[in-house]
Amino acid sequence: MDLDDIAARLGVPVEDVDRVHRLAGDRPSAPLPAKADAPAILDRLAVRPDDAAEIMAGWPDPGSPLWTPELHWLLDRSIALVRADLGGHVWLSPGPELPRERGPAWRHLYVYAYLALVDVVMGYHRDHGVADAVSWVTLSDLGRNLAIDRRMHREGWPVMQSWLTLHARGGIYELGRLQHHRGGTAIDLHIPESGPMTPEAVAASLDEARAFFPRHFPDERYTAFSCGSWLLDPQLLEYLPEDSNIVRFQRRFELEPYEEPEGLDADVEVLRFAFRTLTTPLDRLPRRTVLQHAIVDHLKAGRHWHWRRGSFPI
Ligand SMILES: CC(C)(COP(=O)(O)OP(=O)(O)OC[C@H]1O[C@@H](n2cnc3c(N)ncnc32)[C@H](O)[C@@H]1OP(=O)(O)O)[C@@H](O)C(=O)NCCC(=O)NCCS
User: Fold this and answer.
1) What pLDDT does 186 receive?
2) Distance, CA 36 to ligand 1 centroid (Å)?
3) Domain coordinates in residue numbering, the chain
4) How high is the pLDDT of residue 72?
5) What CATH number belongs to 173-314?
6) Inter-CA distances, 51 with 28, 56, 142, 170, Å
7) CA of 296 to the centre of ligand 1 (A)
8) Pick from 184, 194, 196: nearest CA to 222
9) CB-based contacts of 271: which residues, under 8 Å, 6+ apart?
10) Residues near ligand 1 with C-beta < 6 Å?
C-alpha cells in the first residue's frame, strides 16, 4: 500500500499521512498491553465504564475485522512517532484527525496508541525516579479527557489527541491540583477540570513542583511558572468577584503584552472550558454560574475573550 492509498482509505489528506511516515520512519513501535490486562489498566487510567467498554469492543486483535491494514499501519506508526520523541515536551500531533464516526477502531485509534505507550513512559518516569503514584495520576488524564469528549459529543477530541502525547512522552506531571509541563526555563501550568482551584490547593501544587523538578530533572533549570489560558484574561475581572478562585489565580501572574494567538480563537476556547461545547449558539447556552452569565453577556455585547500568557518567578 502506498501513502496515497493509505490516505484515501483513511479519508484524510495525504500530507498528514506523509508526515506520519516521515516522522515515524522505521523507528520502533511498542506493543499494546495484553487484552486480558486492559480492563485493569483502563481503570487505573480513570477511564469510565462506558468509554472502557467501547475501547475493549474495538480492541486491535490481529484478526479483528474492525482493523483494516491502513488502520493497523497508522496505529503502529503513530506509536513509533510519539515514542521517537520520548522526553519531548512540545505539542505533537500523533497523526491525522480521523473520521471517528466510522466505528470504535477509528474513534479510539489514538487511545490504543496511548495504551501502548503507557509502559514506555512509565519506564521513562522510573528512570527519573518519579513515584508510581505520580505516574498513574498523571496518565489518568486519559479517562478525564475521554469523559469530557463524550460530554462534548466528541467535539473535544482533535485537541486532546495531541494534548495526550505530552503525558505519553513524560512532558507533563500532575502534582496535586495542577499539571506541570516541562520545557524551556518556565514550568507551564495547566488546570485540569477537577473541581474548584482553591488558592490553598494551587499553592500546595506549586510547592510540590518546586521540590519535584530539581529532584527528578536536575539538568533542567526553571526560573518561573508560566501559563497561557483564557483564565488569565483580565476582562474576567469586570465580572467575577474579587475573592473568586480565577481572580486570585490571575493575581499571581505578570502578563505578557496581548498578542492575537495564531490558530486559536479564544472565544471558542472559553466555550470549550466553561460550557464544554464549541458550537452551541449563544442563546442556547446554559447560564448557571456567574462565569457563564459573564461569557454570554460579553459575547452578546460584541466583545471578545482573550487568550493571555503570563508568568511569575519560581
Ligand atoms: C479553572 C476552574 C477550576 C476554576 O473554577 P473555580 O475554582 O470554581 O473558579 P471561581 O471560584 O473563580 O469561579 C467563579 C464563578 O465562576 C463559575 N465557574 C468557574 N469555572 C467555571 C467553568 N469552567 N464553567 C462554568 N462555571 C464556572 C463558578 O461556579 C463561580 O460561579 P458561581 O459563584 O455562580 O458558582 C474551572 O473553570 C474549570 O474546571 N475549568 C476547566 C479547565 C480549564 O479551564 N483549564 C484551563 C485551560 S487553559
Assistant:
1) 98
2) 39
3) 1-170, 173-314
4) 97
5) 3.40.630.120
6) 28, 9, 11, 24
7) 15
8) 184
9) 277, 278, 280, 285, 295
10) 191, 193, 196-197, 229-231, 240, 244-246, 273-274, 289-292
pLDDT band at 234 (very low <50, low <70, confident <90, very high): very high
Amino acid at 108: H
Confidence category of residue 118, pLDDT binned at 50, 70, 90: very high
| Smallest CA separation from ligand 1 atom 46, residue | 191
Q: What is the pLDDT of residues 14-50, one digit of tens each?
A: 999 999 999 999 999 999 999 999 999 999 999 999 9
Q: Looking at residue 1, what is its pLDDT? A: 75
pLDDT tens digits for range 126-173: 999 999 999 999 999 999 999 999 999 999 999 999 999 999 999 999
Q: Which atom of ligand 1 is nearest to the CA of 192?
A: 42
Distance CA 20, CA 22 (A): 5
Measured in angstroms, how far is the CA atom of residue 73 from the centroid of ligand 1? 41
More confident residue, 4 or 1: 4
Mutate to test the pocket of ligand 1, among 191, 247, 285 (most ligand atoms within 8 A of CB): 191
All three cell numbers of 31: 506493543
Q: Which residue has a Cα nearest atom 13 of ligand 1?
A: 244
